[in-house]
Amino acid sequence: MAKPDNYNQLRVIFEKYGLDIDSVVNNFDTDFSKGKLMKLNMGHFGLKEFPEDICKFTSILYLYLNHNKIDSLPKDLIKLRKLRKIFLNCNNLGEFPKQLSMITNLRQIIIDDNNISHLGDIEEMPFLQSFSLAKNQFKEFPETTNYGRNLLNLDLSENFISQITSFQGLEKLEHLNLSHNKINRIPNDVMQLKSLTRLNLSNNEIKSIHGNLFTLKNLKFLDLSNNMITSLPKGIFYLSNLKYLYLHNNKIEKLPKDIVELKGLKRIILSGNTDLSLTQKQEKWLDQLKAQNTEVIL
Predict the structure, then answer these.
(1) Successive 10-residue mean pLDDT values, the chain, 298 residues
(2) According to CATH, what is the number of the domain 1-155?
(3) Is the Cα torsion angle 72, 74, 78, 81 positive or negative in sign?
(4) Among 34, 229, 274, 280, which one has the highest count of C-beta atoms within 10 angstroms of its own C-beta?
């Protein structure tokens, strides 16, 4: 394997933190192709601070610092202008590092399982495609103006979000995970998520569903399980591409009549709705789904 031009300098940095560079060189997730450091994995190293000298290696594209004890990032992080992906999950960050938003080439930020409660005054991240903020301390859905333009995946699961004001600016979003929060209402402008194919709203406190949700014609996966939903509005038949529908563990008593138009389902779960009553037409529809090898759980 080719070594970077300043390999000895990298060795000194690692020794400073009591690390063995050879163990990293031999790590599958560390890449020294073309004589430059392209990918560096320092995850699970027990680091209490970000190794600031790493910022000298401006060729880095992928940086793994997950599962450490880092509580802040250095200002010099912005020198990593080519950085495309950074993994900071499972650390001790108390606020979102503004430096990340100043690296405009970033495509993916994984910063799950920290103590972040808001994004703060961040710069625009025009090329960001995947943003994972699960297992943090968010109480409000973060403003999307500066990061949502080209975002495809957003994960805010396992936070403390109770209300969502708007989904504005997320027109290209394909996957949205808001499970395990305290959300009690889906905003009417959910229709703006016109590219969405996967939506997870399970394990919240939602009582009712606005019909605008059923305008998301590209949806293939919809999970509304473990809420307090009592009924579904008309229009669900518009979700003609839906393959997976999870409605279990709610308080649904009746299904909308037009649900029988969903003939392409691969799995539907309705269990845990103790007062659910099906019409004969709906029972026949479920039997037909079973006959085409759809998994039906009542």
Answers:
(1) 61 74 58 72 90 90 96 96 97 97 96 96 93 97 90 98 91 97 94 96 96 96 98 95 98 96 97 97 98 97
(2) 3.80.10.10
(3) negative
(4) 229
Nearest Cα neighbor of 87 from 59, 117, 107 is 107
Q: Which two tokens stand for residue 146?
A: 């500066």
The per-residue pLDDT for 79 is 96
Q: Where does residue 98 rank: exposed (0-12), middle (13-18), buried (19+ CB within 10 A)? A: middle
Using CA atoms, how far apart are residues 145 and 280, in angstroms rounded to an integer?
48
Q: What is residue 267's three-state secondary structure?
A: strand
Q: Give me Rg for the CA atoms of the chain.
A: 23
Q: Is the pTM higher than 0.70?
A: yes
At 153, is the secondary structure helix, strand, or coil? strand
Residues 283 and 260 sit within 8 Å (Cβ to Cβ): no
Six-digit token pair at 125? 């991240």
Where exactly are the structural domains of the chain? 1-155
Q: Which residue carries 């192709």 as its tokens?
A: 33
Name 49's Cβ contacts closer than 8 Å, sequence gap at least 6: 70, 71, 72
- In the numeric block, the tokens 């080209």 are attached to 150
Residues in the chain: 298
